[in-house]
């Protein structure tokens, strides 16, 4: 194994059933249902997936959902705004812990 | 920007394109050839069904030079159908009951005999569809009355608009194309095209502005309808999502951007037997500017004429053509991927 991530491996996602078919089948069935049009459109779900892909920093997911959002007719601006949502939540989640730091400072300080 | 033909590009040669397509499937990807895929679906040899569409490419001249164009059309192309060849088309049509004539190009309206041809086809009682690039309507005052001409002859207008904003549309079709397309769509709406309670049909053609497949036709239609109505006040009837086929200028784009192998792999692995059963070449006859017959407009651009003795419209013989085998090659994977693709949108 020369690298941990290989773009070719994304195409092999479906083969995870080789080691545990039943759970893989259930996962892919669930996955398909999640991304179908529902209360949210498939297009909206794809943009959410793109944002989450950046949050979990999964290169496979970023590759897959960049293509998927393009296929669903999203604009580059919509895609980048989705990434900013992920960045804002990640940044915000760090910053909001600043309150914890401040609480501790105030607890310890004269 | 010049056409591939005018710039002496190697991809202007159809043999080169066919060799490249064969090589990527067999040598690089080591995947089945198209006829082998059809065999697995029980569809080889591919046979025609009743002909529903008589498609006529009246010339390769166009006012635009789009980056994805499978015709390699542009202002520098001079291949134009003569009135004599149009008459041969009319004579052929008169011997059949084919209900629909689909006029394409280039920009078909640039053919000097275009309006006469439309009138004669309508006189035969056939439905006429015209593949209008929209910008032709505003390109020159002599075309400004096209919407009214279409209305008077009840022509169905099928218009290319690859995206609902200027950025992506202009990247594919040229600077200023989106703005001119919006002007033309407003002119079509103004005479009744695409409007509620109107019989004048206006359809848009979406094709991806890049190396990816179209999403669902219904989802794209919803998005186009929402944005075009909210932002531009434009209405249309249907949206046809068309996959870019890997030939001509789009093939050049794929190769020059390093996307060729990946795109072909995507097309082949997305082969859908249901889409293959519904391919348009089974119910279409395509006539070139010089009167030769093909199974579709893509075969026409690869110079893959219909199989059999009858190869020119002057010899048109519906009975003989109904017994032909559809000519296929590796570009056909573009019409069988996912939900399928045809000049009328998805097929599965």
What does the secondary structure layout of this molecule look like, with pairings?
The complex is a heterodimer of chains A (110) and B (348).
Chain A: H1 7-10, H2 21-34, H3 42-55, H4 59-71, H5 76-96, H6 98-108
Helix pairs in contact in A: 3-4, 3-5
Chain B: H1 14-28, H2 34-40, E1 53-57, H3 83-94, E2 100-104, H4 114-123, E3 127-132, H5 135-139, H6 146-152, E4 156-160, H7 166-173, H8 177-190, E5 202-206, H9 217-232, E6 239-241, H10 248-256, H11 260-269, H12 273-277, E7 284-287, E8 293-294, H13 297-301, H14 318-322, H15 333-336
Parallel strand pairs in B: 1-2, 1-7, 2-3, 3-4, 4-5, 5-6
Antiparallel strand pairs in B: 7-8
Biggest sheet layout of chain B: 8 strands, mixed
What ranges of chain B have pLDDT less than 50 throughout 5 or more consecutive residues? none
Instruction: Give the helix tally of chain B.
Output: 15
* DSSP E strands of chain B, number: 8
Reported CATH architecture of chain B: Alpha-Beta Barrel
What portion of residues of chain A is helical?
A: over 70%
Summed over residues and divided by their number, the pLDDT of chain B gives a mean of 97
* Structural class based on helices, strands and sheet pairing of chain B: alpha/beta
CATH class of the domain at 35-108 in chain A: Mainly Alpha
Work out the strand percent of chain A: under 5%
What is the level-2 CATH architecture name of the domain at 35-108 in chain A? Up-down Bundle
Q: Regarding CATH, which class of chain B?
A: Alpha Beta
């Amino acid at each position: 194994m020369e690298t941990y991530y290989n773009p070719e491996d994304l195409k092999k996602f479906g083969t995870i059933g080789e080691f545990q078919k039943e759970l893989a089948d259930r996962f892919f069935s669930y996955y398909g249902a999640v991304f179908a049009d529902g209360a949210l459109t498939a297009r909206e779900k794809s943009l959410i997936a793109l944002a989450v892909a950046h949050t979990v920093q999964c290169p496979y997911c970023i590759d897959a959902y960049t293509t998927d959002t393009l296929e669903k007719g999203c604009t580059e601006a919509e895609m980048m705004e989705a990434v900013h949502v992920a960045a804002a939540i990640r940044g915000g989640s760090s910053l909001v812990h600043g309150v914890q730091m401040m609480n501790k400072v105030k607890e310890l300080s004269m | 920007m010049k056409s591939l033909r005018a710039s002496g590009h190697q991809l202007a040669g159809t043999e080169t394109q066919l060799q490249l397509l064969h090589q990527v499937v067999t040598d690089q990807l080591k995947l089945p050839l198209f006829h082998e895929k059809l065999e697995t679906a029980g569809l080889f040899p591919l046979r025609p069904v009743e002909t529903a569409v008589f498609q006529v490419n009246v010339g390769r001249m166009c006012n635009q030079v789009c980056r994805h164009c499978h015709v390699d059309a542009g202002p520098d192309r001079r291949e134009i159908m003569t009135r004599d060849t149009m008459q041969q088309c009319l004579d052929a049509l008169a011997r059949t009951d084919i209900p629909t004539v689909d006029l394409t190009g280039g920009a078909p309206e640039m053919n000097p005999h275009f309006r006469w041809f439309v009138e004669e086809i309508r006189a035969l009682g056939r439905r006429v569809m015209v593949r209008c690039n929209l910008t032709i309507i505003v390109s020159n005052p002599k075309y400004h009355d096209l919407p009214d001409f279409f209305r008077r002859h009840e022509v169905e207008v099928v218009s290319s608009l690859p995206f609902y904003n200027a950025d992506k549309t202009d990247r594919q079709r040229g600077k200023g194309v989106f703005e001119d397309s919006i002007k033309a769509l407003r002119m079509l709406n103004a005479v009744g095209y695409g409007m509620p309670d109107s019989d004048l049909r206006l359809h848009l053609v979406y094709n991806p502005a890049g190396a990816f497949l179209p999403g669902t036709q219904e989802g794209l239609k919803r998005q186009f309808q929402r944005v075009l109505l909210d932002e531009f006040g434009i209405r249309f009837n249907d949206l046809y999502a068309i996959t870019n086929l890997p030939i001509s200028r789009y093939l050049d784009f794929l190769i020059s951007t390093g996307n060729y192998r990946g795109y072909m792999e995507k097309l082949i692995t997305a082969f859908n037997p249901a889409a293959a059963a519904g391919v348009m070449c089974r119910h279409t006859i395509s006539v070139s500017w010089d009167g030769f017959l093909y199974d579709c407009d893509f075969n026409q651009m690869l110079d893959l004429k219909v199989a059999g003795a009858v190869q020119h419209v002057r010899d048109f013989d519906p009975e003989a053509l109904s017994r032909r085998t559809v000519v296929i090659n590796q570009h056909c994977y573009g019409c069988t991927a996912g939900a399928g693709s045809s000049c009328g949108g998805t097929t599965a």
